[in-house]
Amino acid sequence: MATVNVRKETGRLYIDFRYKGVRCREQTRLSDTLSNRRILKGLIIKMDAEITLDMFNYLETFPNSRKAQHLFGNTNHRCESQRFNNFSQQWINEMSPSWRLSYRQTVSYLVSTKLNDKFGSCFLSDIKKADILKFRSELIGSNNTANESSQLQLSSSYVNRVIGLLCSILTEASNRFAFSNPALEITPLKVRKKTVLPFSLDEVEKIINGVASEFKDYFIVRFFTGLRTGELHALRWENIKLLERQIIINESIVDGVVGRTKSQSSDRVIHMTDIIHAALNRIAEKNNNHAYVFHRKGKPLTQSFITQSIWYPLLERLNLTRRRPYNTRHTAATLWLSSGENPEWISRQLGHKNTQILFETYSRYVPNLTRFDGSIANKLFNKLEVNL
Question: What is the DSSP letter of 190?
Answer without folding.
Answer: P
